[in-house]
Fold each of these.
Amino acid sequence: MDDEVVQRVFQEGGRDYFQQQPSTSTSSSSSILQSLPLHVSFDHGYYLLVKSIQELREKKEGLVTVGIGGPSGSGKTSLAEKVASVIGCTVIPMENYRGGTDEGTDLDSIDFDALIRNLEDLTEGKDTKIPVFDFHQKKRVGSKAIKSAMSGVVIVDGTYALHAKLRSLLDIRVAVVGGVHFSLLSKVRYDIGDSCSLDYLIDSIFPLFRKHIEPDLHHAQIRINNSFVSSFREAIYKLKCRSESPDGQSTFFLKDEAQTDNFIEMYLRPPSANEEARINDWIKVRQSGIRYYLSLGDQRIVDKNFIIRPKAEFEVGRMTLGGLLALGYNVVVSYKRASTSVNIGSLSLSLETIDTLGETFLVLRGTDRKTVGAEALRMGITGQWLTKSYLEMILERKGVPRLNTPPLVSATSVSHNQEKDIAAPKPIRTTPNLVSRLEDLAQPWTRSPTKSKMEPVLPTWHFASSDRSHGGLVATGSSAFRDTMKLAPMPDSYDLDRGLLLAVQGIQFLLENKSVPVIVGIGGPSGSGKTSLAHKTANIVGCEVVSLESYFKPEQVKDFKYDDFNSLDLPLLSKNIGDIKHGRKTKIPVFNLETGSRSCFKELEISEDCGVIIFEGVYALHPEIRKSLDLWIAVVGGVHSHLISRVQRDKSRVGCFMSQNEIMMTVFPIFQQHIEPHLVHAHLKIRNDFDPVLSPESSLFVLKSNKQVAYQDILNILDSAKFCSSVQNFIDIYLRLPGTPANGHIAESDCVRVRICEGRFALLIREPIREGNFIIQPKVDFDISISTVSGLLNLGYQAVAYIEASALIYQDGKILIEVDHLQDAPSPYLQIKGVNKEAVAAAGSALKLDGSYTTKSYLQIILERLPLVERSYSGIHTHQAARLQELVDSIQSQGGSTPSESSQSREVSPMDGIIEDMQCRIRRLERWHTINTVLWTFLMSALIGYSLYQRKRQ
């Protein structure tokens, strides 16, 4: 794309209508810049912004400037930080340009002239100094030097980042709406009803939005709707006790790193609420200096001694509090919290004094439950743990009655009309992420909460009696109660964040109302996210997870029949569940997938302290298994939906259009026949919208080099206390549809990459972002069945290349070092992987790899070593074609394919590739010829008509 097109796209701002999202393929023929503006989700917007910056940086000389604007609490700062972590750019927060005491409107308090001077200096290649604002002292406290050579990209982050004064200096304009901004709007509208219009509500709680913020957002080229509200996926685990003698831990707080903060925390009750304390309906506002943070309700989970809180607090404007009070919200509780905190590794230790209570508390925080518990033991904290919030303590002292905790449910309180069986259960599937048309929207995109956001109250769990004959009194802890009382299914399906919260609440409800243990089953197709959900749930409630893969029969696994229900040792599973139900120790098998046999048994006992066990697997909700479980959870989506969308995209690129249902029946034949019918009966149904390509939360930073490194050097940079190593042998097969436009070359982005490792098949999602020396790719790969690979072959995918390798893996929990010996490479390649970019870079420097990195994929490296003809079409050496064909035949035979189902076009040879490419080009030429004919016909008709009209006039 030439410079004039780039300039036009970024000056005109594109077209103001919704359109289909472009392919995420990194094909060189597509340009993200030409597709703007786009209305997308947060994850997709992050991906598009990174790609847009990279594309413009290649085409433009000098600095690339980006503005990310939107209302307070929409998530714009989070987006800027995530992009900066990948690009390595400079972020300029507009809040540092406040002009002193913050009087008047927020817009008037911004020093635009200083910001413009800073941007102009950086654009002209000059170093500059940006101000630093202290929100506790409410004034500027100095400046920070920014060197123009530090980065080729600068991001301006702030509510008014798209203001008319700045737009001419910005190359890319991004608007972010949603987050707590939409959530608060929905919450207020829910609380006060339809007594006033949406515009009135906006003007009340966000008085500057419609006049000073919203008009600028329409000039954005990337328009992001952030649906995030709160999430327990990255929860904070807290242990809290009274600090009877603060001197006992005084040594921790005498360090120079100790930080002191003072907060004012307020809880606002809705205008229509009763005097009793329904604190989950309240709004929490925290003031820190001149900053205000808001969260909806007392969002937390209490499990044993732990208080578990989600990431749910966002900054809002200072006038939002006044607007809520004007709408009738009342400040029920207000107190001051003085905090002195110090970091201990990944944990935080705080002394917090609450003025209303007149007491000091010791609080230990962290993101991992086991780590927090272990640190508390190491520190010797012996005080009695408290699980009540400061709000609850204050309410108890005031004597306010509580309505949040319902009484225990007895059999007499369960009426027959509470039975809620699913008469005609419907399949749960994630819908394709299609963008709506503009005329379908009731409100402008900048302020229109979706229907799901307009229903902020989640349903609560209750029982539905499954046996009408038990009409009398039944003891809560008796086996008869356990057998007769069944959970009523939730009425709807939920996203992963709400589903995780409901799963934990369901477990706690069963623990309170039924006897221990509680046995949970989480089922769903391969790659749907059930394993991830199981471990996140277990981390919150502190329980064990057992995978149904442990129950594979060795004789079935040898034939790759992982997705066959008969491959499970059902008698052993039933015995284990029976032992767990009766409180007995049981022996769980441990299955070695590499050898295809059971390696040993491990002893498992569910203690009274935990009382929960989770079984997860494809068939966890099969009728033969779920009848023994207390809570049934179904998960769909994830990479399961990603692969279906990817196949649909590939088929459309070669001129063949298939419905998602047709693809699913071929690629996941077992799912519709043997898995989906069981999922519809679940108590809780979860739709996982996670896309491993787009999500910034799944980023893994990778450095790759072919420089030789000694084994001892690797050991020296890893933590010896946590060091472990392993060996893996794998084969990567690259599947590609014939006729895929690729200019005669094989690109990894055009292929579906399948890895065979330790007897398992995995889908490797690799559409990475390459930035400098780093490759940013998804953290994990996703298991699939052999029938899925066979289904791809039946849809016409052709095995065009394969790589055979062995990997030596060394890791210490922070970074992973992988030494790959490729069959067709003269020397091994070393990869350093980690979620922390700085840690990966430091490891590379310690191994003296700087200057030797490559961002090429292994496929690209192998292809560059081949002769030109083989590189272009078959992708493999001629002598390797037989081996690849042998692998394909084995997959088809084991995957249930018949020769008649297989396309003859799967023979791998250079001549077939040439013919397929020629046929593809001929089809494209035919389409262009048809279009040109139609256009010339219209043009000639217009000319003839015009000439006849002129002749008639004369």
Amino acid sequence: MLLPAVMALSANALLLLAMVTIYDLVTAKLRPALRGRRDAVLGILLGAIGIALMMVPFKVGPGIQFDARGVLLVVAGLYAGLAPAGIAMAMTAAYRLSLGGEGALMGVVTIMASGGIGLAWRHWRRSRLANLAWPELLALGIAVNLTTLLGTVLLPPDHRAAARDDVMIPLLLVLPLATMVLGLLMRDRLRRGRDFRSLKATEERLALALAAGGQGTYDLDVRTGEAIVSPEYASMLGYDPATFRETNAAWIERLHPDDREHVAAAFRDYISGNRPEYRVEFRQRTAHGEWLWIRSVGRTMARDQHGAPLRMLGTHTDISEQKAAELTARLEMVALDAAADAVVITDRNGVIHWCNPAFTTLTGYSREEALGSSPRLLSRSGAQDQAFYEEMWSTLLRGEVWRGELINRRKDQSRYVEQQTITPVSDPQGVVTHFIAIKRDVTAQRRFEAQFHQSQKMESVGRLAGSVAHDFNNLLTVINSSIDLAQATLPPDHEARPDLQEAERAGARAVLLTRQLLGFSRQQPAKVSRVDLAEVVRGLLPMLERLIGENIEIETRFAETLPPVLIDRGQMEQVVMNLAINARDAMPTGGTLTLAMANTRLPSEDGESWVELTVRDTGMGMDAEAQEHLFEPFFTTKEPGKGTGLGLATCLGIITGAGGRITASSTPGRGTSFTIRLPGARGDADTPLPATAAATPRAPSRPTGGPASVQRILVVDDEEPVRRVMRRVLERDGFEVLEAVDGDAALVAIAEHRDSLALVITDMMMPGLSGGELIASVRAGGSAMPVILTSGYSVEFTRERAGVGADVTIVSKPFMIDQLLATVRSVLAATN
């Protein structure tokens, strides 16, 4: 019975293997449809196979049979799990009970034992099922079939020995081998499933990566020009992946015309071996007609026997956003390079990483010198203290923008005022990593602002000077007139007369001073006259000696005969005084001031005679740069607060306005020399001076009688001393005088004495109704009464300021008695 048992059980085992193979194929095709019902279907299929095996058993006796169902169930428990194995066990056990016979109990027990051993083995083993080796599966088969042999104890006693003898060897030889083979088949099936799932996941991850990176793949048959592409490849170009077909010709047709040549060159270089990788960027037209920037990377995967490429794999990547960002960055960089302001990027420690050309222009350092260095090492001037930089760095390291101005130093050591805006750049964690500084040279702007403030200051000083001059003129009117009255009452040989004459000369100088003040305030035009320049300088010497101090010696060298020049005397005095003061400041420890005058002739002036005045000192001198800006307004070499920068500019204006020239020469440490050249006045030097400089003839100091002794004059002035001295002068000359303290009081007096008033003398500047307004009111009332208008300003300025016509006579303060009386008589005579 041994051979039939072996043959029968071997055939049963082969049937099992065949049916399991069919099972594997069926379940592989039905796998997508088995979702949710997998365990039930698998259990039913396994149960059906088990029933099929029990239909062709090896029979030992009535109702006693052996087959390979134990092999099936132990492998089902091991690989399929509890639910499928349980269903298979239930189906096979039910079928075995339906067959009945003396071996039914043993059959059911072995069914349960085989499935249970497989499930227990699955649960207790430590390594993965996919790692099962054949020895373990063979051991599992032996264990199951030993259990089957032990189950023979459940057979009737008279059949136990015969059944055990007939099937022992086949059970322990054939079926363990079948268990091993079936287990290996199921293991390989498990591995294939695992590999399939891993490959599927990899494909899904690759698809996600390609989609996220804007990439598509292609597989090009170089010989036919046809390519297999991924869905992402087609979608990137705006085509439907389901219908898109790629060919080399269509690909070239979509290329931008400007890119075809360099793409072809890149492919030729790669094929010829000049490049290790095919990598090129180009533009392709999408299905919507737009241009898309693509980076193509590829490798040849197969070549023929001659080395010609057969197959090429690669990717297409959408780099449109990258190109747009590069364009934006390039434009921003061009804008920064072209910016007029200096731009610097540094790291957290202040080391320069980048700078634009404006920075090199501003500082004088080349880009190579600047990169890797620090702005504070390149430009620190020492003008700011440590506290300044500590406050700046504290602000920046807090992540705040710092704005301010500081004095920096160029490569040539020159200083400039720099306006800075420094912006910190932080990483995602908020840590400051870099700084962007925008720098602007505001030296000229600050100089202009200082000049503007200085000009405003000078304008205010000018207004003050004009106001002082006006009040001074009122005082001088009283002083000079009182001196004149005193001299008129004294005999020629009176001992007080020399003192009065000295006071008269001082008063005349004071009048000149007020004219200079008015000229400074631009309320007094220059009075050009024939001036003896040597006399001007000699007249200033006493004042200069007191002004420049005892440690400076004054030397004078004048030519014997000099022609007069046409210039405002007071302005010429101002020029000499300015140059002398500058010379004094240049010699703080003492020295020599030389004033020299000579005749000269300039070659280009047709032999015209010029007067040359040289003012020379032995002071510290000036360098070439200072001399270039010497006559510019507001330029000064003196310390702040010790010079306005207007002195030499004013001298230049005065001299050039008179048709002259002024030049300077200087050597550091050896002094400075200013040379003034003025054209000599044409004509004889002894020609009388213009009327503005000549003395006014005195009028008789005694009353002349006649109509003047009874004529009534109204004097209007807000200064009581001026009214008092004018009353004395006029009454001494035989006039009757009425007084009014302002314009309103004058209108009342005119209304009361309209018929008896012969003349009105009024000041221009008065509180309330001014002199000009008073005259306008008188004229508006229809009166043609003669009016004399007095003013501390020039005639032209007074006439314009008061708004009066030629019918009003103007007398400038301070006036002399004779001048006032002559004017009064002239006006009254013209009226009569």
Amino acid sequence: MSTPDQNVDNVSLSGLVATLVPTAVIAAVYFLIFLVLRKTQRRFYAPRTYLGTLREEERTAPLPNGLLNWFRAFWKIPDIYALQHQSLDAYLFLRFLRMTVLIMFVGSCITWPILFPINITGGAGGEQLDKLSMSNVDKNASNGKYKYFAHCFAAWAFFGFVLFLVTRESIFYINLRQAFLLSPVYANRISARTVLFTSVPEPYLDQARLRKVFGDSVKNIWITADTTAVDELVEERDKVAYMLEAAEIKLIKLANAERLKALKNGAPNPEEELLETPLDAESGSIAARWLPQKKRPTHKLGKFGLVGKKVDTIDWCRSRLEALIPEVDAAQAAYLAGETEAVGGVFIEFARQSDAQAAFQTLSHHQALHMSPRYIGVNPNEVIWKSLAFPWWQKVIRRIVVIGFITAMIIFWAIPVAFVGLVSNITYLKSYSWLQWLDDIPTVIMGVISGLLPSVLLAILMSLVPVVMRICGKLAGEPSTSRVELFTQNAYFMFQVIQVFLVVTLAASASALIKQLQNDPGSITSLLAERIPTASNFYISYFIVQGLTVAASVLSQVVGFVIFTLIYKFLANTPRKMYTKWSGLSAISWGSTLPVFTNIAVIGIVYSCIAPLVLGFATIGMSLFYLAFRYNILFVTDSQIDTKGLIYPRALQQLLTGVYLAEISLIGLFSIATTIGPLILMVILLVFTVLFHFSLNQALGPLLYNLPKSLEAEEEFLRGSIEAANPASADREKRGDITEGSAAQKEPNFISKFLKPHIYSDYATLRRLVPHGLLDPDNLYEETVANNAYHPPSVTSPTPLLWIPRDQSGISRQEISHTAKVIPITDEGCMLDEKNKLSWDSEGARPPLWSPKIYY
């Protein structure tokens, strides 16, 4: 291979140091902030240990409150705890992070002892970090071509391990998901027994006809209809209701402030006994004693409240609600009576889960794209109701347009991303006369520019993409938020691979090639073989930034803590807003989070045999991410979107993208170096990978998404056997008092367990990890909840309960007596303190607005 231009200073090591030092400092500061705040800010750093909105079985046992003594207890909590107390997605996300750490670590163990000595002694004259990469192997040196066999054999070993691990994890996922879906708590949920049919033709939008198609196993049918009218009425009703609530609170606080001011100045307090008197005993307005009429809450009726007639807000809202509430009730009744136009979405609940699975796996209509696609396990809270109205032909058009838009976005997004790649190798551009001023920049600053700056810019650029992808998913007609997350996962991963890997790699290589190609165009092949491996220096910096700064910020959540504190203190000015902000837990967005780590693993796999040093930094970075997300999932976040684990097989399949790209890259590099032996071996490996991947999908593909009929019988058999043989074990299983290590009756050694997932991770074993009795499966729902489960939310939306604070002077009690004639209202659970501030029981967190979580 050709020798680098001697006029170009290689600053790969200084760039590494310039990236590592500031990111390490920032990470240390973040971690220190976390250690300090964790002790006192329990709501933000350990809400899952005590919040009253969580059921007892959903909570995590609190950790010791010391500065560092909590880590041992934290480490002892098994990952399976996330499955038993949160969701299948949360557990599989942690498992994926742990698996990528294993891949990167094993890759380091395979490649470093073999390839580092080969690369260092390659004879191409590389310096600093470049000596450790494949670019330092000179094919013209003594035995140079034979050295490439080392890279080839390392690739066979490492890529073979990745293929095995993907297969192993696919088997594990299939058995675990089947065990989860067949557990009594889930199998009896209404979503497990309900199938959503989309694009249903008009003749079949009839309950009698649908029952004839699907037989006696049908329990309930919900035919979705146009909700435009009821949506608008409910939206206006709620808007006016919350306006009334805010006005009532403003009136009470203004009057109470005037009262406190008067009492401070020595005025008598005639309201001391008011809290003990009946609501209607006080004649006249108590608020008027302290607050003149002109200071009561008012607003203008024109647009944006800036123009029009000025009215008393409380009186106007009461009057408007008197008319609106009956209108809403009438519109809801009309929908339930079937008086609105039906659209193409139908939810069918079956008596048993097996009946629902049979309907889901059966072709339902004789015409293409009718009553299809079908979905099972859709949570009513996740349904995107507007998408159900799209006819089949519109979905086809929408998907084509969305794919075209994403393709165009990828092409044009490559421009700023390519600029980032150029900056990462800016030192190679010094040879241009108009860029010779770069020589005047100190090496340290140049290291920051070429190392830290591109990594930060790339992270900022990519953070904007998931928002657009989710919008695209909804526009494409995805019927639920979980399907939108899966759409985002696929689209964002494709975006990550193309932009973060391909574009950056090519742009970083191009910056080093342009000038040399102008001088010697015939050297393109040797230059590519030399420069593409050196592009790995950028990814070392990228992994440092991701692994240290980003992982530390994920753990410390400094920005989130500041925003939460400011919003709660200054903007949560009503009891409702305070409760909503206090009780709402943050959630991890699987569709935008998982592709980032999948792509990091892909990059590590691709560069594993080209620049093995990348694997070491990837191992450290993914380990830090694993620990940060492990803490958040166990103690901080909640799962708002549940894909029932479907994020995992997609991520596993996407990992194989790294294997394909790595094999193609090595074939290209071996071709450039004209090393026939390694080239033939890599082509054989590529063909083997394709055949293996195809066979894997053929064998396991149907099991990834469907439940086999045989498992229901096996589940009943296993349940009966356990209860008959060991009642104590059955009780522990119902409580979910099982750890990952105790899943098998007899714990095998690690190697046997790892190499034989079909034995030690089979259905019978993994079902013991799934809690079976945290809820009563026979009494999950009240009758009205079950009957209304799959009606649009506006159709079953009740009139809001207004929540105002109680005051010492009795104004709230009088306002309740007047407003309750129109709309429900209460002042229980919140009071104005001596400073006129809202005060409520945040520890219990079960005020009048609280309602038990429904497990659909």
Amino acid sequence: MSIDLLDNPPPDEMESILVKMGGAFDLAYKRFEDLKKSEEQLRESKVDLALERVRSQAMAMQKSSDLLDIVVTMRNEFTRLGHEAHYFWHMMWLPEKYEKAMTSGDGTKIGFVMELPRHIHGDIPLLDRWEKSEEPTAVYAMNVEEALDYVHKMVSLGDFKNIDPQAPSNDDIRHIGGLTFIMARTTHGEIGFSLPGVVENPPKEDIDILIRFAGAFDIAHRRFLDLQKSEAQARGVEIELALEKVRSRSMGMQKSEELKEVIQVVYDEFVKLNINVEHTGFIIDYKTNDDMHIWLADRHKVPAEISIPYFDLSFEEKNKFYTDLFELIPGLPEEIKEYYLGCEALAISTVLIDNVGLYIENFTGTVYTDEENKILMRFGKVFQQTYTRFLDLQKAEASTREAKIEAALEKVRSRSLAMHNADELGEVITVVFEKLNELDFTVKDGVALITFTEGSKDLIEWMTNPGFDAAMNIHLPYFDHPILSNLWKAKDEGKEFFVKRYDADENKSFLNHIFEYTEFHHTPQDIKDFCLAADSYATSIAFQKNTAIFINDYSGLSLSGKEITILNRFAKVFEQTYIRFLDLQKAEAQAREAKIEMALEKVRASAMAMHHSHELDELLTVLFDQFDVLGIQPITTHMTLIDMENNTFTFRETGKGGRRSFGEQRVAIDSMDIWTDAANKWRNSEPLAINSLHFPPESLPMLWQIFHESFAAMPEDAKITPEDYPNGIYHTAGKLPFGYIGMNQVRKPTQEEEQIVVRFASEFGRAYTRFLDLQKQKHRQDSECY
């Protein structure tokens, strides 16, 4: 409505009305202005409150990852004020990269801060120019192709898909027709938000509010960076102190074994630096050795030094790795195994320097940050600097250790070279046991020397054990069992060293057999019980051609690589000396054989020279002398001529010291049951049979009564009494076609002595048969003369 007041002046009444209307409108407009001002003040209050919430949250920042929560807050406050925003972010402009903390497209928090290379914006002229300018804001509107290219770079260079599973797909971008970024500068970078589509001119109010958000955030963020710088300086001092403790302890090493104390200091200092470390270790000489030689520390006090032979496993499954690993760590308690296997995950960081590696682990699966990995690197470098001292110590200790090993080997060598018979192997294994103990070997479960016999799988073991009074010589016949079959398989394959662990069932089945059916049944009961109760059993065997050194293990303590090398050296030394022993034994056997042949020849000559039966007494004296020359040391020698038809035998025996007897005595075979058995055995046995009898002390009075006639005929100084046989008579005789010839001893004869008696009996039998033939011929000739 309009009124022409110039050409048509209003009547007085109208003028009055207009004045009133003007006054009314003025009042209404003033109210409108007041309302508008009030709304602006209310909005400003809302903006201020929003800014304050952003500012206070930024002021409370403790770490960079808190930006992930702040950008969520900024987006919520921004949209609550009525502005549209999809993604919202803060991006730090660093010299080499961008660090972008952003929300998801729906405003929710995402996983972690994204790192992007500088060229992602440097390759975009608009953004490159803006970052170099002082303009407070920039709008980057991207069409579909530009948007697809930018998002692809975020995915490929910044791991966008993993950081935000809801990241837009190519179809999403095509559907919205592109992307627009609206950004406002901060002191150290930018904050910004995205809109769908191409928005060349976003609302000015949106940009103005974004600038104010940038200002509010920037003040608090600058303070955070200043605090962060101060904390970094304090953290640097803290790290330097920790490094100095490691450096100082490393330089203070006097023995290489003190490396366990150094790694403990490293572990303690990592913990003090609030790094999530549950386990740490040095890896020594990783470049020259496929096996892992580790010095380690953790809160469970596991063994400080372990050697893990190389193995190839997938690390996808933590428990698969640790189950196999536990087999290689000696003495690890079950509760510690259960702890590790019960942990939810495993995260490891390792730094590899010139000669050593240093690693840290946690069992929550939390990946170590860049800062923590840098600290790890610094610790590694500090130790690398002092590692030279460790190597010098190790070299000196190795020289001392080598001298000690050589001295131990020389003891074994010299004792082995001094052997004259196989029985002395017991003394050799005792020396081996003592020297391995001196070298700190784990041999508390026993050590054995094994000698192999060509053509047989039976084992001859000389074994020593803390539970035995002396070394034991045990013959172990082969039987079908994994412990023995695996041993022979390894030997037949030419392995120098073989180690194998068996479970409790395999251990018990083996022990039950040898304790029942072999000479191991003499094992003391407490040792049997200990072995049978073991959870497992392992053999560590150093093979040579003729011998082996064998270490038992019922305690789960495997030999280290160094110990295996030393054991192989012991095995080689013993093999060399054992071969020499076999040569000596062969030479001695030949000399012994020559001595036996000479003795046989003297008995043969004496027998061949006989002309009368009474000369048999002289022959028995010759036999006694030859037995004595051969070291058999009989008390007497004797001859028995059996007359089965008349159930009698004729007995001749030398006196004490082989003195000649002066007669013979005919005795009824059934005078003693033992003679009846002997006569039956003579009649039924093969030629060259041996007859071994034992007359216990209580039977000797009866024996002396039966042979009273013979013993009475002996000179007083040649008479034999029961007191000459305190343990009874051990009677050994070799079969003749017409009886027995042999000897009496105070001890059980050896197997060799029995064979010698058989040979003498054989020679005498032939000569005596010739003597009888000559006597018959002479008797015929005499008869023909008459």
